[in-house]
Amino acid sequence: MSSQKEFKQQVRKLYHKLIAAFGIITISVFLFIYIALHPSAFKNSPEETSIIAVPEVDGKIENGIHLATGFVDGEGLTEVIQNCTNCHSAKLVTQNRMTEEGWVATIRWMQETQNLWDLGDQEELIVNYLATNYAPQKKGRREVLTDIEWYTLPAN
Ligand code: HEC
């Protein structure tokens, strides 16, 4: 083998190494940028994996009602939409009226039996929203009659 050929081979080897190194550096840089831009994709904390699917929150509100779901507008609406419409219709929520304790109990029941996730620090806001906007109505039944003039049916 002539020394010139050997030299060429050496140069080619070096060239290949440089290409490999350049490739590795390029990939690393892209990976680094990706991780820097999407930190949540590499975390596994319960807060970030707890919401199975966040439904699109269409914000249109008319006469104090969120049109897409029928929820009353109020503080916590977004959180309620995000956490309470994944498994069942919003109607199942809005047709109910409960006290704060009642709502908490319903949430616990769903957590224990229906795989509802831990609502974390959003629970307070959600329960507040529900207890405020879907509280039991004070006069669910008619008031007790007073001042009645009784009359006796004539006997035949
Ligand atoms: C992981 C799924 C899931 C999520 C999320 C969820 N629920 Fe439920 N929920 C259920 C299931 C399942 C039922 C029972 C449905 C049925 O009986 O048809 C239910 C029933 C209910 C009921 C009716 C309870 C009854 O006694 O009839 C209410 C009210 C309710 N959910 C409110 C909520 C609220 C408020 C949220 C948000 C904090 C929520 N749900 C989020 C699964 C879920």
UniProtKB/TrEMBL annotation:
State the organism of origin.
Flagellimonas hymeniacidonis
Q: Does the keyword Transmembrane helix apply?
A: yes
Q: Does the keyword Metal-binding apply?
A: no
Q: List the keywords (alphabetical).
A: Membrane, Transmembrane, Transmembrane helix
Please state what the protein is called.
Answer: Monoheme cytochrome C
Could you tell me the superkingdom of the organism this chain comes from? Bacteria
GO terms for MF: electron transfer activity; heme binding
User: So where does this one cross the membrane?
Assistant: 18-37
